[in-house]
């Protein structure tokens, strides 16, 4: 297939992503028409609309997009690493580990990059624990890996609840944020965006090696891939992406599972197409989910993790059922 | 010229004595068969020769250089391996599977081009699986998958072909077709080095043989010197009757 044709779906997904973002900033407790929204985005229109769109809704929308993209790319990478479509940073406890790491550093009074670094440490620790324990003496079996991941994730959930229950400060964002994920507390979206862009750029030259790695480590080594460094790169990359997503919006589940699965059904499994497609598709999905979360029981808001879980749980069960 | 050499090589099979270290010299144009009972270490030997697992002692040399000193990508340009069992992760089509044979030849930024596609299509044609090119590999029969795997190494086009039971799952016609293809490759100056279960195919198609005994002992040399009924009986722990057919010895197991 010629390169231009292979990458056409990415253009479509990028347009879809843009459309969801425009929708997201125009929908809400005060609905705006498309013309008003576009006017506010380009810097004209009324003062009130500009504040509403540019200062309240746009940062949240961008944060949702970047977080969704990061989680979907992290999920797709882990699926290649494990050659298992059920791998997902939330299900396998990476998000939980990152949340504990972030909370610990916040309770210690730290902020900014250190929180992200600490979240990264938590995610990496969780990855090593799950894969180390599930690997044991033999090779990974899907059931063993999933069980280990689920138990570790439950353990992190308990630790988060414990920490929030005995934490002296009430300044920390709410409990649901760390357990379910919510974009409402997101700060600046830019670090997440930059990382997402970097990940997509790095993945392009590594894409063919990832395709070969998806055939199994021995076959990949026989075809000239340096398997160990590559696997470590994926571990660390996926942990970093997850950690950044978690510090932006808490532990949002199942985006890393649903999005790569859907896109593989549509686009095949060339990582050079799938990974950027996951960045765009994951972003679009989370923006849509967050828009839903804001309007379903308006003026109250749902944490976006509820929506993604409602989408993700049936998908996960379906995949598990079919893998028998 | 020696394409592949082992020096005092002992493959690492846990709990087994060193036995006889291998000092093989494999030259371009030769076809080697590795024979031995189950568990003698045939697959481990192939993986060690491909650099996929470290030897217990000794070294593998690829031309002038030690295998372990070469970068994986360079190794993969010169040496290819067809595995006995294939790990299926995500579904892939037959054409995509053959096309990954080009991986060692492309730089990271390069996409597969028209030439690569043409090579993969020719390989599928040569293995009689071109009509399946859009099918998913995991929907194929065992024999069809085996031919796709051989098409992949043909696309990879290394100087040294290591094959683990290349005739597994193949019907008689395709067994002969695959062995002819390997013979042609050897005639064009490649090395063919394969494990075989079928003694008679080895007697027919290989010019050199390596016999691996379960205790780690080994002997090797030109095929006609290796095909001694007494040695083969000891190798397989099975009485044999030797007959001659079509100009080659045929070994038949004794019934009782």
UniProtKB/TrEMBL annotation, chain A:
- For this UniProt entry, which segments traverse the membrane? 62-82, 89-108, 114-133, 145-167, 187-205, 234-261, 273-296, 302-321
Under the heading Pfam families, the entry gives:
FecCD
Keyword Cell membrane set for record: yes
Name of this protein = Iron ABC transporter
Membership in a protein family? Belongs to the binding-protein-dependent transport system permease family. FecCD subfamily.
The coiled-coil regions, if any, are none
Keyword set, alphabetical order:
Cell membrane, Membrane, Transmembrane, Transmembrane helix, Transport
**InterPro entries referenced in this protein's UniProt entry, alphabetically:** ABC_BtuC-like, ABC_transptr_permease_BtuC
Membrane topology according to the record:
Multi-pass membrane protein
As for subcellular location, the record says: Cell membrane
Automatic annotation (TrEMBL), chain B:
Task: Note whether Magnesium occurs among the keywords.
Answer: no
Q: Which residues form the ABC transporter domain?
A: 4-239
Instruction: Provide the alphabetized UniProt keywords.
Output: ATP-binding, Nucleotide-binding
Q: Which InterPro entries does the entry link to?
A: AAA+_ATPase (IPR003593), ABC_transporter-like_ATP-bd (IPR003439), ABC_transporter-like_CS (IPR017871), P-loop_NTPase (IPR027417)
One GO MF term on file is: ATP binding
Q: Does the keyword Nucleotide-binding apply?
A: yes
CDD domains, from UniProt?
ABC_Iron-Siderophores_B12_Hemin (cd03214)
Task: Check the record and name the SUPFAM superfamilies matching this protein.
Answer: P-loop containing nucleoside triphosphate hydrolases
The record's Pfam families line, in alphabetical order, gives:
ABC_tran
Annotated protein name in UniProt: ABC transporter ATP-binding protein
Give the organism, scientific name.
Marinobacter zhanjiangensis
């Amino acid at each position: 297939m010629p390169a231009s044709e292979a990458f056409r779906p990415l253009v479509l997904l990028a347009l879809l992503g843009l459309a969801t973002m425009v929708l997201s900033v125009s929908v809400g407790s005060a609905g705006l028409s498309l013309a008003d929204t576009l006017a506010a985005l380009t810097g004209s229109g009324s003062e009130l609309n500009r504040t509403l769109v540019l200062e309240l809704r746009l940062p949240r929308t961008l944060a949702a997009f970047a977080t969704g993209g990061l989680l979907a790319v992290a999920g797709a990478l882990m699926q290649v690493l494990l050659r298992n479509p059920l791998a997902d940073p939330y299900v396998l406890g990476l998000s939980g580990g990152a949340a504990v790491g972030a909370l610990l550093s916040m309770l210690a009074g730290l902020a900014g990059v250190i929180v992200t670094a600490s979240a990264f440490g938590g995610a990496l620790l969780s990855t090593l624990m799950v894969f180390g324990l599930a690997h044991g003496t033999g090779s990974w079996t899907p059931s063993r890996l999933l069980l280990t991941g689920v138990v570790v994730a439950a353990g992190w959930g308990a630790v988060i609840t414990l920490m929030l229950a005995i934490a002296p400060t009430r300044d920390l964002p709410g409990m649901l944020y760390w357990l379910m994920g919510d974009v409402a507390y997101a700060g600046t979206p830019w670090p997440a965006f930059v990382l997402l862009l970097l990940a997509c750029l790095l993945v392009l030259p590594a894409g063919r090696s990832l395709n070969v790695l998806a055939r199994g480590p021995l076959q990949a080594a026989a075809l000239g891939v340096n398997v160990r460094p590559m696997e470590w790169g994926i571990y660390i990359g996926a942990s970093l992406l997850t950690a950044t997503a978690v510090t932006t919006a808490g532990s949002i589940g199942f985006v890393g599972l649903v999005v790569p699965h859907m896109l593989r059904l549509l686009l095949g499994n060339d990582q050079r197409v799938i990974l950027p497609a996951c960045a765009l598709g994951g972003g679009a999905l989370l923006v849509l989910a967050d828009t839903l979360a804001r309007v379903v029981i308006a003026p109250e808001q749902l944490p976006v993790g509820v929506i993604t879980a409602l989408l993700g749980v049936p998908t996960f069960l379906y995949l598990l059922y079919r893998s028998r | 010229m020696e394409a592949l050499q082992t020096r005092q090589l002992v493959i690492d099979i846990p709990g087994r004595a060193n036995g006889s270290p291998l000092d093989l010299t494999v030259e371009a144009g030769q076809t080697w068969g590795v024979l031995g009972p189950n568990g003698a270490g045939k697959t481990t030997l192939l993986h060690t020769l491909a650099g996929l697992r470290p030897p217990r002692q000794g070294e593998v040399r690829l031309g002038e250089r030690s295998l372990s000193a070469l970068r994986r990508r360079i190794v993969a340009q010169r040496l290819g391996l067809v595995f006995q069992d294939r790990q299926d992760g995500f579904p892939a089509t037959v054409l995509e599977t053959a096309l990954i044979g080009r991986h060692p030849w492309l730089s990271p930024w390069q996409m597969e081009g028209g030439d690569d596609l043409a090579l993969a299509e020719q390989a599928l044609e040569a293995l009689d699986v071109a009509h399946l090119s859009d099918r998913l590999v995991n929907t194929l029969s065992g024999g069809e998958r085996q031919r796709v795997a051989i098409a992949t190494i043909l696309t990879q086009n290394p100087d040294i072909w290591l094959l683990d039971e290349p005739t597994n799952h193949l019907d008689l016609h395709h067994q002969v077709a695959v062995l002819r293809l390997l013979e042609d490759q050897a005639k064009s100056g490649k090395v063919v080095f394969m494990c075989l279960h079928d003694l008679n195919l080895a007697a027919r198609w290989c010019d050199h043989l390596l016999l691996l005994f379960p205790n780690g002992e080994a002997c090797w040399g030109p095929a006609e010197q290796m095909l001694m009924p007494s040695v083969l009986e000891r190798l397989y722990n099975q009485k044999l009757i030797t007959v001659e057919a079509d100009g080659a010895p045929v070994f038949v197991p004794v019934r009782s």
